Amino acid sequence: MDRRTVLKGLAGAGGLALTGGLSAPAIGQGAAARTLRFVPQANLANFDPIWGTQYVVRNAAAMVWDTLYGIDAQLQPQRQMVESEEVTDDGTTWTFKLRPGLKFHDGEPVRSKDVVASLTRWAARDPMGLMIKALQQELTAVDDRTFKWVLKQPFPKMLYALAKNNSPCGFIMPERIAQTDPFKQITDYVGSGPMKFAKGEWVPGAKAVFEKFTDYVPRQEKASWLAGGKQILVDRVEWIVMPDPATAAAALQNGEVDWWESPIADLVPVLKKNKNISVDIGDPLGNIGSFRMNHLFAPFNDVRARRAVLMALSQEDYMRAIVGDDTALWKPLPGFFTPDTPLYSEVGGEILKGKRDFDAAKKLLAESGYSGQPVTCLVAQDQPITKAQGDVTADLLKKLGMNVDFVATDWGTVGSRRAQKTPPGQGGWNMFHTWHAGADCINPAPYTAIRANGDKAWFGWPNSPGTEKEVTSWFEAKNLDEEKAAIGRLNKAALDDVVYAPTGFFLSYTAWRKNVSGITKGPLPFFWGVSKSA
Amino acid sequence: MLSYILRRIVATLPVMAIVALFVFSLLYIAPGDPAVVIAGDQASPEDVERIRQSLGLDRPFLVQFGSWVWRILHGDLGTSIFTNLPVSAMIGQRLGPTLSLMIVTLLLTIVVAVPLGVVAAWKAGSLIDRVIMGFAVFGFSLPVFVVGYMLAYIFALELEWLPVQGYTPLTQGFWPWLENLILPAVALGCVYIALVARITRAAMLEVLQQDYIRTAKAKGLGQGGILFIHALKNAAVPIVTVIGIGIALLIGGAVVTESVFAIPGLGRLTIDAILRRDYPVIQGIVLLFSFVYVLVNLMIDVVYTLVDPRIRY
C-alpha cells in the first residue's frame, strides 16, 4: 500500500462523514481511454468561427463544422462535403453538388439552403470571400443537394477559397444559425462535422468538451489535414485550458493530460527526457516573425529609413530570442513566404542575407533625414514572442543611433493602439511586433499582412503599387509556373519597399503521451485518426 | 445587534455605487479594445469598427454607464462580450472552485497557524519559538507561485501523491475534491499561515503577561487550559481581525494560485477578462469582490461580539 492510498483512505473516511457518502463516478479504464485530454494553445473564449477569427476558435470549429472542400497536406483543395462540381468554360458559373447522407448534429439533413446561408455569412468576413462577393451575381440553391454560384467574372481560386484552413474557414452551419449577422455571435452550435460541441460542459477559460457525432459520414479517402475521411476514434475530446506552461508540462508528465499543443521551447528538453512522452514539430508551416513600421509618419515614411533597419537586422538574433538555441526550430527568411512551400521565394532577399552592415545602414538612415526624433516601439509583454522580438528591436534601433520610445504594454493595448493613424506623439506609433502563422503566408490570398494598398492595407498602411500589382498577377495566374513568377516579383517589390520586416521563420513543438497515436503534423491539431490506449 | 447589521448592510450600498462608478470609469479610460481582440489579428479596421458598433462600445460614456447601472439595478450583470454567456452564469461556474480553495486554505491556516502562534508565545525566546518564527519569515518571503511549483514538483511529479492541476466538484466525491485542493491550499496558505502565526504570537504574548493568567497559574490550572481557554480567547480580537484581512489577501492570492494549478476559479476568470478587455465580466467580478470585502468586514465585527462580550454595537 502506498502513501497515496493511505491518504485517500483517510480522507475518504472523513469525506463520507462530511458529504453523506457522495462518491466519485466509477470511470473504467476503457472510458478513460476513449477520452482524449488536450491542452490547446489558448483559451476558447468564444465559439463562433466567423465572428471571432482567432486560431483557437478555428481549431475547435474544425471538429464541429465541416467544409465544402478541405486543404490537404500538399496544400491542394480536395472535395469534402461536396460530391462534384462543374464550372462553365468562361469560369463564371460554378455548380456544386453535395454528398448524400450529410447530417447536422440535430439530425436534420444538410441542404443547399444551409450552404448558401453559410457561404453568405462567411463571405462577409473572409478576405477571399469578400473578393468573391464583389464578383458575385447570385448564389442560389438549385435543389436540396445542388447550389450555384454565378460570378460576373472568373475567380480561378474558388476551390482554394472554399478549402483554405485560414481563418475564417467556410464552415457549413444550419441555415437558422448562418443567418446570424456576421458581426454578431451565434449562440447555437449545431454543427456538420465529426464532433459535437457539448455546450453544457463549456467553461470558457477552463474547459471545452467535444463528443463524437455518430451520424457523421466520413469520406472514404484517407484523411489528410482538412480533407479526406475524418474518422473519430475517441468518444470525447476534452480541451483543458492551462495558462501556465509549467503546469501543462507537469500535467503531461503526470499523465493528467494526453496532448499539449504548443509546449514552450524552454520546457521541451524536460519533456524529451520523459520516456512516456513524444515530442515533435507540430506545424511544419511554422510561423513568420515580424515587425511593422508605420509608413505614414517619419522616420519610416521614408523607404530609406525602413531599408536601413532591414540592412542592420539580424534574423538570427530574433530567432534565438524567440526559440532559444535549438537550431532545428528556426531558419532565416529572406522573403515573406513560408519556406518549403511551392511559392517560397528569395528573390530580392539580398538585403536580409550576409553580414549586417551597420555603417551602411547608419548612412542610409542619415540620408533619410532622421534626426533623433523618438521612435515609438510598441511591445506586448504578455506575449513571449512579441516581447522577445521587441527587446531585440530596441537594441537594434539603439545601435543604429535611433531614439527609442519603448512602450512596454499588453497585447490588448497594442491591438487597439496599432489601429491609430494619429502621429506617434499623439497616441499613434512607429513600430509594433507580431507574427504570422506560416499557413497564412503560403500565398497572397489569406496573407493580409503582405498587402500594400495604402489606407486599406493592414496596420502600418504600406503603399507599394509594385507589390499590389503582383498580388493581382498571382490571383490571375493560370498555372503554378505563373504563380511562382508572380510571387518572385512580389517578394522583391515588397522587400524593396519594406512592406514589413520579416524577422525569421520559426517552428514549434507539440508533445503527447506515448499511449496516444495518430497525431499528424499540420497547421492545426487534427483529431481525426487520433486514438488512445489505456 | 440586528439593527446594527441591517444598518451596516444598507451602508454598503453607497460603497458599492462608488466602486461601480470607479470601475466603470477606469475601464472606459483604460487603453485596449475588446473589438480588436475579437476581430483577430488579420481583421481590417472596418471589421473592428463594425464589431465595436455591434457591441455598443461606440456609445458615449454616460449612455453606456446608464444602461449598465439600469441592468445592475434589475439584477442583471450583463453578458460577456466574448463568450456571449451571462456574467452571472460565468461567475456561478467559477464560484465553486474559488470558494473551495478559500475554505480549505482558511481551515488549513487556522488549524496550523493559531496553534503555532500559541506555542511560539508560550515558548517565547526558546528554540521552538525561533524555529516557528523562522518558518513564518520563510512563508512571508516565498512568492506563491514559487511554493506552488515546488510543491507540484515534489508531491505530484516526484512522489506522485497528488495531481498537478485541475478541480473536481465536491459532488463527485470528497477525496477527488480535496485531492485537487491540497497543494494549492498549502501554496496559497503559506503567507497566510505566517501572518496569522505571527499575530497570534504577538497577541498571546501580551495576554500572557496579564494578572489573570498569573492567577490562573496560581490556581493550578493546566497549561493547555490557560493557553487555549483563558489566554487565546482574550487574544482573539486581533487574530480575528487578521483572519478577516487575510480573506482579502486570499482573493488576491487565488489569482496566482488558480493559474499555477489550473483551477477554473474566479481568479483566472478575472485575469482572462482583464487581458481580453471583457468589460462586463470585469465589472461583475469587481462588484462581487467588493461586496465580499464589505461582508467579511461585517462578519468580523459580529465575531468581535462573540469573542469579547465587552464589545456592543
Give a summary of the structure in a few sentences.
Chain A has 534 residues and is of the alpha+beta class. Chain A has helices at residues 3-19, 29-33, 55-64, 112-123, 127-135, 158-163, 175-178, 245-253, 268-273, 303-312, 315-323, 358-367, 384-399, 411-417, 465-476, 480-496; strands at 35-39, 69-71, 77-79, 82-87, 93-98, 136-141, 146-151, 195-197, 207-212, 236-240, 259-260, 277-281, 287-293, 330-331, 374-380, 403-409, 431-437, 501-506, 509-513, 516-517, 531-532. Chain A has a seven-stranded mixed beta sheet with strand order 8-9-10-1-11-19-12.
What would you say this structure looks like, in words?
- The complex is a heterodimer of chains A (534) and B (313).
- Chain A is of the alpha+beta class.
- Chain A has helices spanning 3-19, 29-33, 55-64, 112-123, 127-135, 158-163, 175-178, 245-253, 268-273, 303-312, 315-323, 358-367, 384-399, 411-417, 465-476, 480-496, and strands at 35-39, 69-71, 77-79, 82-87, 93-98, 136-141, 146-151, 195-197, 207-212, 236-240, 259-260, 277-281, 287-293, 330-331, 374-380, 403-409, 431-437, 501-506, 509-513, 516-517, 531-532.
- Chain A has 2 domains: 33-240 and 516-532, Periplasmic binding protein-like II (D-Maltodextrin-Binding Protein, domain 2, 3-Layer(aba) Sandwich), CATH 3.40.190.10; 284-508, Dipeptide-binding Protein, Domain 3 (Dipeptide-binding Protein, domain 3), CATH 3.10.105.
- Helix content of chain A is 30%, strand content 19%.
- In chain A, the strands form 5 sheets. Chain A has a 7-stranded mixed sheet with strand order 8-9-10-1-11-19-12. A 6-stranded mixed sheet of chain A has the order 14-18-13-17-15-16, with helices on both faces.
- In chain A, strand 4 and strand 5 (93-98) form a beta hairpin.
- In chain A, helix 10 runs antiparallel to helix 12 (358-367) and helix 11 (315-323) packs antiparallel against helix 13 (384-399).
- Chain B is an all-alpha fold and 313 residues long.
- Chain B has 2 domains: 2-86, no CATH class; 88-307, MetI-like fold.
- In chain B, helix 5 packs antiparallel against helix 6, helix 7 crosses helix 11 (236-260) and helix 8 (174-208) packs across helix 10.
- Chains A and B meet through helix 1, helix 8 and helix 14 of A and helix 2, helix 3, helix 5, helix 7 and helix 8 of B.
